[in-house]
Amino acid sequence: MSVALLSVAGVALDALLGEPKRNHPLVAFGRFAERIEQRLNAAGRGWRSHGVTAWFIAVVPLTLIATLLSWLPLIGWLVEVLALYCALGLRSLGEHVEPVAQALRSDNLDEARRRVGYLVSRQTSELDSTEVARAATESVLENGSDAVFAAIFWFVVLGAPGVVLYRLSNTLDAMWGYRNERFERFGWAAAKIDDLLNYIPARLVALTYALLGNTRLALRCWRTQAPKWDSPNAGPVMAAGAGALGVELGGPAIYHGELHERATLGEGVPADADAIDRGWQLVQRGVWLWLLILCLGTEFYA
């Protein structure tokens, strides 16, 4: 079965079922990763070498298992589809961002703050409506890259092993990749590996956002604003996405009680509920574009 058809099947399964409500593989993996971290980074005393060891213990065996299962006759294709389905978060992303936009339209700022708190790590209790919309729009653009496009990219490149390797690495970065006393050394490997795995996908996503929105503005924001962002991959994605939407994102935000002076991204009107919806639609159109290109490429080279 072609990678294009397998990709379509995985995306369709995500659209139909959404994330597993019970026994999600990533939840079980998260618990496994917590136990590894407790052993190798007790009281935050782990070094970079411990973080590298922890990453290999957590990721490599499961990636090898995915490889062996994908080689099984008759059911290997099903393993491929299920691996992509479990790694995708397209429907889940929409289910999280749409209530934020709805709450803003209903002038229910408290509910909007509560809902956006599920999406971002910044402090949300004192955000105004524009700041809530900005946070949600940033989240849909960045998570669209991490939880959707990058998963599809690595599935196309390496099949089930690739998408398992990517999703587990991305999960470890979300758990360990913090620049604080506990994870500064131990989480270094997880953060760097995730940066490496996202480098090409992030730039393809930035190009996708640019092509499907205000292309000229998106490319200019990508070129001039992305280098000012802390993350080498989130910068291009969010700068191009903000430019494509014609909204202003970024700016100061409070994380864990500390004010972070972030660069401004994009250009145009302040973010609002409409910007959230348009960001979500941008991600959806991007997925259809990627699947179309895959299908046409398969047909052309068949």
UniProtKB/TrEMBL annotation:
Pathway: Cofactor biosynthesis; adenosylcobalamin biosynthesis. Signal peptide: none annotated. Keywords: Cell membrane, Cobalamin biosynthesis, Membrane, Transmembrane, Transmembrane helix. InterPro entries: Cobalamin_biosynth_CobD/CbiB. It is found in: Cell membrane. The chain crosses the membrane at residues 52-72, 147-166. It is a multi-pass membrane protein. The keyword Cell membrane applies. Its main location: membrane. Belongs to the CobD/CbiB family. Converts cobyric acid to cobinamide by the addition of aminopropanol on the F carboxylic group. This is Cobalamin biosynthesis protein CobD.
